[in-house]
Amino acid sequence: MGCSCSEFEGMADRQFTAAKAAKELQAYRRGRLGATTRLLRDAIVQTGMNHGTLLDIGGGVGALTFELLDRGLTGAVIADASAAYVTAAREEAVRRNRAPVVKVVHGDILQLPLVRASVVTLDRVVCCYPSYEPLLEHAVRRAEDVVALSYPHDRWYVRGVTWIENSSRARKNGFRTFVHPAVRMQQIVQRAGFELATRRSTVVWSIDVFVRRGALPNRRS
Question: What global pTM score does this model have?
Answer without folding.
Answer: 0.91
